[in-house]
Records
---
Amino acid sequence: MTETSHLVGLVRGTGDAFQQRSPGLVFPALFAYAHYLEDEMRLEEALDVLDTLLQVGGAKLPPVDAVGARLRRARVYRKLNEFDAAEQSYAEGGALAAATGDTHSELLSRIGRAQAIRGRGNLLHAEASYREILADAERLVDRDAQARASQELAVVLSTRGQPAEAIPFEWRAYQLYEDGLSRMRVLSDLGVMLLIVGDVVGAEGALTEITRNGASHDVMDNAFIELMHCASFRRDRIGFERWREQCDARREGMPPNIVVDYLLKGGIGRARFGQLDRAERLLADALRISEEIGLHEFAFRIERIKAGLRDCRRAPDEEPAEVAQPVVQTEAVREVSTALAHLAGAT
């Protein structure tokens, strides 16, 4: 739906709610509009709509809507890197879910809080939380929660430097998810992880599948960034510039954390092509933004790469370790790569 369609629905819902003196008639339109704004990465506006929903609904909000609105608001806060507000909203939603026996939403609240912990850079705590949540989701036979916990655990393992261990969890999440948008998000993660272990063909296959099928705004951003990264990995200068131009065209709509990722991988690409001055400028911008918004894990990684670039100036025939990226293959990774090849061939 277009924004105009959402606004027309909202006006109609508001009119019906006023005429029938039933605020609940406007709730579906508010939820739908907030979801649209979030997908478009208009996050501040999405927050305004969700706050309006909670204020208008108050105690009259049905429990499922009261929980859902708080969890969605928490997710938007997290995308804005406002982790304190996100954790508070996740906790509120989880408490309401527990009070009504909604085990699924309670698990989603716990997953969200673990995501906030990961965002702050506490990867060990986040990993332990995800493993505990995954075990509980399996015990409750909650397929969706299993998929989400598996996906988030994979991201933490990869971030901690264990991509080969992460990839099977990510593929399991793909198999568990039943909706296309969630599966595209998993393919985005898989593209990142497969490239880290050196499987550029598998990575490009996963990412190209996203561009072919379409996805939410942030997933599409990530796909273009990672395809740029794949091109520099293969030392394909023309491909790198083509994907970089597409990323540049989307940059204005990117949230800060994705901008940091774009600048970081653009800097790595410049370094791979021997343009160390341009690489250092891009990495300096990425470091500045990551420090401003509290992305500590990003900042640590950028500092390591910047130090590697300084070493390259002293020994120009060497690349920083994170720029070179070794190939690490296991049987489980090969199985996932093969499955992705079959997937691409079937579409």
---
Amino acid sequence: MATKMQNRFKSKVLWGSLLSAIVAFLLGSGLIDLGLSKTITDVIVFVLTVLTSLGILNDPTNPTGF
């Protein structure tokens, strides 16, 4: 179990997912304003949410699978 957690913390996908979740939250809540239209900001938040979902679904302990 400890090895599995250690592998997850070393995963670039995990850290990318965490960063995209934080940025999506900040954009969605209005704490960061890009000065773009609401539609473009919503698309950016959607893409960041998809990246977050991929990071959650990723299993770094399985080298042959996702």
---
Amino acid sequence: MTLNYIWVGFFIVAFIVAIFKTFSGNPEIFSLIVNSIFERAELGFKLSLGLTGIMALWLGIMRIGEKAGAIDKLSKLFAPLFTKLFPEVPTNSKAHGAMIMNISANMLGLDNAATPLGLKAMKELQEENPDKNKASNAQILFLVLNTSGLTLIPTSIIALRATAMAENNIIGNPTDVFLPILIATYCSTIAGLIFVSILQKINLFQKTILAYLGSATIAIGLLIWYLFNHKNQIEIISSVASGSIIFSFIISFILLGLRKKINIYEEFIEGAKEGFNVSIRIIPYLIAMLCAIGAFTTSGAMEFIIKAMGSFFGLFLENTQFVEALPTAIMKPLSGGGARGMMVESWGQNASQINSFVGKLTSTLQGSTETTFYVLAVYFGSVGIRNTRYAVVAGLFADFIGIISAIAIAHVFWG
């Protein structure tokens, strides 16, 4: 329902602004808006066509990893940590395995596998919940970790960037947002964890938790420190690291498949078929949002909002170029499709701005936050929870930290 209001609101606001501009001496505004709508529809279809091939590739690779046991290995790796973070859940509960597998699938970009695993985790947690109408501590923490969206492989964002660059013959590396997204989502996840831990009185200084979070935080901190002190090497490091890490995942999945003696080629084909179906399902949503955002932008409403935010932040900051990317950040907790449309819109006509500061920042913002309201509605709704307590506040806090982190990291990488 939220998405419905957003979509309709774009058109209504565009219409009102266009009427005002018509009487203010701009009679061509309605023609420009209509042309923009048709252009965005064509753009959405072109992007979707390119997205089909890349999604087929990635979901084929991910299928190999899934069948080869990559998720199971990640689950075993994080099992000791989850036992400490969810003290109210019995150690023999099936919820532990489902939660770990869900978050592991999210980290690997396996959205289709992550959702059913997440719903299963919520069902198992509901079995342990003494009050069936009120969210338990474990359910809240699980959903906050879910919505904070720690991502190792931002599949759809890389796919969209690669498609747009190929369609418009733009030279560049579509994976250069890989490291910034990884860092921003880590910050978001840690922020959400700390927020919930304070309210639930979870001791984050336990040896097991410190071993996991401390080592990861030190690694991320050293990476940021090194990049900050070697800014002239950031582009090279980002390119080499993103390419080598992603290709290492591919090789690891293939080697795991060989060890497990699965038919790697056939599993890739099955995953690629799923990727094709996913891309087909995305087409109407992408076109719908691009058309609505195109009307909203062409009418001048978006420019007004950006100028207003720029004036506000200009009171405190000298550099306000990040403001042009904020519509994507604001939209993401409400609608993944809307934020995706905002991101594509920020790339400009023929994706001419895709490698600009704003173009890369919107890509990072798209990957560093989650569709919080959608996730909470689906997961809590699946088990009949009505009283979500502080889950929304905690999820939005994690999103906010993710946005701040993405902006700061973007300035380190490309500012």
---
Amino acid sequence: MKKLSVVSVVGAALLALGSVAYAGPLADATADSLWGIQLGGYLDVSYTYNFNNPDESNDGIGGRAFANDDNQIQLDAFQLYIDKLPTDAGEVGFRFDILAGEDAQAIGDLWNNGWGNDDDISIYQAFISYIAPIGNGLTIDLGRFAASAGYESIESPANDQFSRGLLFTFLQPWTTTGLRLTYAINDQWEITGGLTQGWNVVEDNNEAWTFNGGIRWMPMETVFIQETVYYGPENWNVNNGTIDSNFDGVNDTNRLGNDMYLSEESNDNYTLLSDLVASWDINESWTIGGNFDYINNEDAIDKQDAQLWGLAGYVRYNVNEDLYLAVRGEYIDDSDGILYYNPGWKDNSLWEVTATLGYTITEGLLTRLEYRHDSSDQEIFADDGIDAAGFANADDQQDTIAIEVIYSF
């Protein structure tokens, strides 16, 4: 879960809170020299080939929000973080993350809400953190921070796979802006709660708040279980004709919290997300994990409630200190036709399987080779050629191979 090597329970908890996902030599050095302030980051470059060979006018890779360009070298991300997070009651600190590159276009910046903007820079975390002297210490965060839901992370070095999964891409928030409270009851139990301005936005796109809360259980050092709930008016509301008239379904998707699809009714139509994550370090070599999401959208399709759910499984095997093999499998049931909105595309499902080989060449330099197969009941993936209407030909299958190089500092 959001890891570079074998998952640790402490690391998983910190990552879920949106704090340091990894630390390179620069972070270690600056922590001792700049009044405890840490600096760090990573540079991520990749190449992906889509075996569907989509037409140049529609050369994206379906089902992806990150690294979704076909047959070209991409500067996915140059990320820099600065932080001085508090550790004891009465202390105050901060966290600041800035990202440049293709990934920033997916996340959105502080002034441009939603996925798909044209900005190559994103400030996706910027918050003040204070530990109030209440009980064991109540952590209060105010600002923009990485969402706590999900097994995967915005930051590529913190994941086992190069490509982000279906659940991360379609069913989970990436960032939230508002207030977050965290309280550790003891060494095993921790609770969180807060109010945010929707999903993946800074400037609220309606006049209502979203509640989020969670509970984490760590029964032993090698086991991590977390349940997170989001409840607020963040649905698509595609029933009122707000979808772009050019929407043909091929490589086009809806997404929770995207202001492009919010309607005047969005203050009243609520979305419930229940997100369950678990991981287990079996031993030094093997780690397994899982992620289950259930979503209910009020009044989402043809003035009716709509549901969808997804399941993901993860396995990682460390061959040695430098080499690992990771496999991910996912399934999404979209029977109500929310993700790829097309009146004739109900009773749809998507699934994918990904195999990734990761090798650390030297300290801080990680390379990955990845093969991924995507499938859908409907023809939603761009294929070679253009049809008579001017849209890309479509297929119900998609296979890609990718190479990634990451330098973390």
